[in-house]
Amino acid sequence: MAKTNQKWHERFRDRGLRFTQPRRVILDVLDNTADHLSAEEIYMRVHKKYPNIGLTTVYRNLITLERMGIVTKFHFGDGCHRFELIENKKKPDHHHHLVCTGCKRIIDYDDFMDEEIEYIKKVESALSRKHSFNITDHVIQFYGLCKKCKAA
Fold it and tell me: What's the N-to-C CA distance of the chain in angstroms?
């Protein structure tokens, strides 16, 4: 079993869950893409190799993976949920998203400037104090037009 699969297998076992073939295949699909895939897109990629795995199985397993903190579900305003593996070899660890409202392209943004990092930390600290809330993470999405759509 590959090192990555072993890590996931242990996470399932620790929760008393089985590391089934559909779960392994879904995780492999997500681990080998930099795209933000919908459940249907994941299903299409899974179905090519394993035609016996159905769309309902993909949906059910994505819910489980999200609850386990392995997958994050996003809403980018295009009418469907998109999924991203939290620990993905093709993506930076923590990043934000630039979402083009024209072509629906999603750009991962992780080249933060020191001023941005400092500002986010100040906002998190102020919100934590104001609401007595322990912030453990954040998601930031910027919406606008990409270079191509702006030129069109």
Answer: 49
